[in-house]
Amino acid sequence: MAAVKVAILGFGTVGQGIYHIINEKREQFKETLGVDIEIAKILVRDVTKPRSNASQDLITDNFEEILAIPDLQVVFEAIVGEEPAFKYSARAIENGCNVITANKVMFSKHGLVLQEKAKQYGVQVGYEATTAGGVPVIKTMQNILRVNDVHHIQGILNGTSNYILTQMRSEGLAFDDVLKDAQNLGYAEADPYNDISGQDAFRKLMILSALAFGKQPRWEDVDVIGITEITSEQVEEASAKGLRYRHVADVQLGEDGELVAKVGPELVGPEHPLYSIEGVNNAVALDTNYIGTLTLIGPGAGMFPTASVMVEDYADMLAKQTAPVTI
């Protein structure tokens, strides 16, 4: 049985989730994938920090030790922020490693470059976890695009914002009160700026745009508006009319062939594909030429939804490598 060595970059929530899933499912992977997956190293910033859930001999703060692992096949990139995530991902690809990332900040800006580099070096890049967490949007779009054209994407791409808007309507609470509740429940960070300002949804929209259209709109041309100015009175008035506020990320091809995108709160009625999406769920509605409108719904974040789709990305890579050649 083939032994596969992998490394994890970053050991926060997502990195720990990957570590847990690979170890818990190691015997199952031997049966279903035909490989024995071994976590060879884990890259962290502070090697002195106590970590009861990982062996200390796996921990390093030196990326060169990652690249020096003999026969390293895949790097799971779970670092926060653009750098050093991009630099490490690029170097891993140049070293002949597959890369799987959950980093929407990095990938929204550098994804097309990394994918082109991966083609050059004969490896693959998995990025399902960058967008909508546990919802298989990327794989679904990749399959659809083999036959269909996608001409319009609308999405609820941030579970925190959707939870806040849902609770403001269903419980009649003010924005600040629901935000505190979301932080207490772990749905929102201590600094929730990226979620409530729309920046998180914007980054994810740019990733979907690059996949669907092979390009992104000019970032400076995209209006990005958060949910902080929506009042409980506005929510109540909308509800009385049968409407709901949704924070919608939207990109489509204009009549001139140029991309038009926006991110911000919208009032939607029961006929809208995002009307029924509640709580921390994410959803993406794809308008296509043959299928029509397809809506995907599911949990948008968290340790195991995100980590599991990263491991699934690697399972897909293995399947492609071992698929029989037909003539």
From TrEMBL:
Its EC number is 1.1.1.3. This is Homoserine dehydrogenase. Pathway: Amino-acid biosynthesis; L-threonine biosynthesis; L-threonine from L-aspartate: step 3/5; Amino-acid biosynthesis; L-methionine biosynthesis via de novo pathway; L-homoserine from L-aspartate: step 3/3. InterPro entries: Asp/hSer_DH_NAD-bd, HDH_cat, HDH_CS, HDH_short, NAD(P)-bd_dom_sf. Residues 10-128 form the Aspartate/homoserine dehydrogenase NAD-binding domain. NADP(+) binds at G10, F11, G12, T13, V14, G15. GO terms for biological process: methionine biosynthetic process; threonine biosynthetic process.
